[in-house]
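Teaching assistant's notes for section 4

Start the section by putting this record on the projector. Ask students to predict, before seeing the second block, whether Recombination endonuclease VII will look compact or extended. Collect guesses on the board.
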Amino acid sequence: MSVLPDRSGKVCPQCKRSLPVTEFHRNRRRADGLGYCCKACAIARSAASRRRRGVAPARKPAEPVGHGLKWCPDCEQVKALEEFRSTTRRASGRHSYCKPCHNARGKETVQRLYGGSREYHLRRRYGIGQREFDELLAEQGGVCAVCGDPDPEHVDHDHRTGWVRGILCFNCNGGLGQFRDSPTRLARAITYLRGTTWQRVLIHPGVFQMCSPTRGRPPSRHS
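Reveal the predicted structure now:
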C-alpha cells in the first residue's frame, strides 16, 4: 500500500526547515511532485554550480517589470508577453528570451553542434548527415534514382519505417508523396497512361485521325 505525500508541508533536506509546499519548485519526476530542496536552497545550489563552472551569474532587470511584460536577459529589453514564445515547462508559461533572441540562440546552437542547418535537419528528420547523403548520391551515379536528372537534393524515406530509400529530385520526391508511396496506385497510373494515349489511326489511304483507344474521339482542336 503506497503512502500519499503530505501536501501541507515538506522538510527541506538542505536547510532542515519545515516549509509549505508553495516554497518548493514543481518536479513531476519525483514521487511527491516537488523539488528536492526548497526554492531558496535550489537557487543557492544553482548559483554555486554556475560559479564552479565559470558561468556568469544570471542577469536581472534593473527595475521591476509591470504586469503583462517580461524582461529578456539577452537584449536586456522589457517587452510584451506576446513577444516571448509560449511553453508548458515554465511556471510563467513563456520562454526566458524574446522571439528574436530565442531564434538567434537556436541558430547558434545548430551551428555549434552541427555545423549548419543542413546537417541539423538531415540528422533530425532522416538520421543521416551530409556525408551519408553524399555517399548515397555517389552510389546512384550523382543522379535522381527515379528519373535520372543530375544533382538531386531531396532525401526520400519510407514514411512507415523511417528508413532512407534514396536521393530524388523535387518532382520525383513529390510525385511519390502524392501517390502515397503506393505501388498499386503507381501501377494503375501507368496502366491509365498507356490506355489513354492518343494515337494516329489510318481511316482512309493517306488519311489519319487522332483517337483514344478508350474514349474513341479525337482531342479538341484547342488542346
